[in-house]
Specification:
alpha/beta; globular; Gyrase A, domain 2; 3 domains; Rossmann fold; Isoleucyl-tRNA Synthetase, Domain 1; five-stranded parallel β-sheet
């Protein structure tokens, strides 16, 4: 039980008409420390108790007087302000932390599967900084749910089908060079893709040729299929390098093409259920009764679209993984598409469609405007990560030239800085990419938090402590405000993990890590740890340092940031 739960339990004994969950939701943290650690407002009790809130607060405060957990309790107007006994805080947090399982984890997801569709890069197009958002957010959500006991299935739904491949095949046939493409990889494919769009502006017939080429690919043209497969192989080889740097893995790389032999069954089912209608030669599902525009399922030439393939993918995933939820981590500009295809599945009679969730995120743009692959206006993610690593290396060589494993640490810190920056704000917020901002290591950044962990690790090495000893956590030695603040934030970790998972918001953990690091640094500057004269005090502060370091490592791990022990 947390300190808050202990207090709620005491209040529930005094106010039996309220259940525990209600009291927990009512408890507040006062805006000023001088007011206490917790406050209980009595406004909502006035009606049922037929008393003024101030009188209820007075009676409740008197009833709580003498409770060992509380150092002081007083009524201030309609509030019951409580200050917690500092030694009791140490005991409660220590017991909770040392309960025998990874702190903050749970088994709430036991027997439940979460399918996560994220990153989902487009084959033969650059893996640019805009794709970092889906990759980092999806990876963090996977880690959060796994920490809560769920089985997670990570799917990279590759964009490896569609008219753009018709364009690319046409471009390659007209202007491509096999040796040059092999040498330049995705950048070579990007060159001819950009050229196609420039040429098509002058010659619109190229677009018709691209459409017919893609239709031929769908119909199994062997030559086109070989070129397409080559594009896919080149792309996967290159993007795997970026995934390795990010330490991101997937259980399955299943592109849109994987579902092509499953779309006919979906179209047939839609027809049988009377959901498919003809509109100007194309086939649609009318969603006007849901206040949405019609969803296009088949083009005039019979080609499939995103909606067709996503319907097939969702049905396949339910049959294959029997998911509790299936999360789609994509840009907010795709919200209508997901609303439409979720609604179609509901109309098809699939009750499990309620478990489909679109997790949208804001747009990543450049200072010069929106990123555009067809115009070649992108920043390659590989270039950004390489630059972050190189900047970190230069800083290390200047400040700590004798550090072992400089390359490894530079990679951990450089990549961590980029990921941390991306996850620092709410996912729905639009971001403008600026090199200076992303590579700024000062302030509330990944390197700041990683350095805090390295500092704590150094203290623990010098103290010879590699295991947490709960018996060293003496309440009387950790009663100062700085130690108490570290403990208060540590205790919030399980709650923050649950909140981040429930809201699909990794930034909850990112901000938590900053708060914990800041609190520990204040504690470090205000308290002697290794040089404390009293051995009991030294052990207590070292044990608190160990506890903090382990929680900080867990927090950073949940957002995909590594923790070097030396920097």
């Amino acid at each position: 039980m947390t300190v808050k739960e202990h207090i709620a339990g005491m209040l529930q004994q005094k106010l039996p008409t309220l259940d525990l969950d209600t009291i927990l939701s009512m408890l507040e943290i006062p805006p000023e420390k001088e007011m206490g650690d917790y406050a209980f407002p009595c406004f909502r009790l006035a009606k049922e108790m037929r008393k003024a809130p101030a009188l209820i607060a007075k009676d409740t405060a008197e009833a709580l007087a003498g409770e060992q957990l509380l150092e002081s309790v007083q009524a201030v107007g309609p509030y019951v302000n409580m200050r917690v006994n500092k030694a009791a805080v140490v005991q409660i947090v220590t017991e909770e932390y040392a309960a025998g399982h990874p702190f903050g984890s749970s088994d709430e997801g036991e027997g439940k599967t979460i399918v996560l569709d994220y990153s989902s890069i487009n084959i033969a197009k650059p893996f640019h900084v805009g794709h970092l958002r889906s990759t980092a957010i999806g990876n963090a959500i996977h880690k959060l749910y796994r920490y809560l006991g769920y089985k997670t299935v990570r799917v990279n739904h590759l964009g490896d089908y569609g008219t753009q491949f018709g364009k690319l095949v046409v471009a390659y046939r007209k202007w491509g060079n096999k040796e040059e493409i092999e040498q330049k990889g995705i950048r070579g494919l990007l060159d001819i893709y950009v050229r196609f769009h420039k040429e098509a502006e002058q010659d619109p017939s190229l677009d018709d040729e691209a459409r017919s080429t893609f239709t031929a690919l769908e119909n199994g043209d062997e030559e086109i299929r070989e070129i397409w497969k080559w594009f896919v192989d080149i792309s996967l080889k290159e993007v795997s390098k970026v995934y390795d740097l990010l330490d991101v893995q997937f259980d399955y790389y299943l592109g849109e093409s994987f579902y092509m032999d499953k779309t006919d069954a979906v179209v047939k089912e839609l027809q049988e259920k009377g959901l498919l209608e003809e509109s100007e030669g194309a086939m649609i599902v009318d969603l006007s009764d849901c206040d949405m525009p019609p969803a296009l399922v088949l083009k005039k030439d019979g080609s499939t679209l995103y909606t067709t393939r996503d319907l097939a993918a969702a049905i396949y995933r339910k049959k294959t993984y029997d998911f509790y939820k299936c999360l789609y981590v994509t840009g907010s500009e795709q919200s209508l598409h997901f609303s439409q295809f979720f609604k179609i599945l509901e109309k098809m009679g699939y009750s499990w469609s309620k478990g489909l969730v679109h997790v949208p995120f804001g747009l990543m743009s450049l200072e010069t405007g929106k990123m555009s692959t067809r115009n070649g206006q992108v920043v390659f993610l590989q270039d950004l990560l390489d630059e972050a690593i190189e900047k970190t290396r230069r800083i290390i060589e200047e400040k700590n030239p004798n550090l072992k494993d400089i390359d490894q640490v530079a990679t951990q810190v450089g990549v961590g800085a980029v990921v941390f920056n991306d996850l620092f704000n709410s996912r729905i917020k639009d971001e403008v990419f600026a090199w200076d901002k992303v590579l700024n290591f000062d302030g509330e950044t990944g390197p700041y938090v990683q350095y805090t962990f390295a500092r704590a690790s150094s203290i623990l090495r010098k103290a010879g402590v590699d295991v947490f000893h709960p018996e060293d956590m003496k309440g009387e030695c950790l009663s100062d405000e700085y130690a108490q603040e570290v403990l208060r934030i540590i205790e919030q970790f399980p709650e923050k993990v649950k909140e981040a998972a429930d809201r699909y918001e990794p930034y909850v953990i990112t901000r938590y890590a900053v708060a914990l690091a800041s609190a520990f640094n204040r504690f470090y500057h205000e308290n002697a740890i290794l040089s404390a004269e009293d051995e009991t005090v030294r052990k207590a502060r070292t044990a608190l340092t160990k506890m903090m370091a382990e929680v900080l490592r867990s927090a950073l791990s949940l957002i995909g940031v590594q923790t070097p022990e030396e920097m």
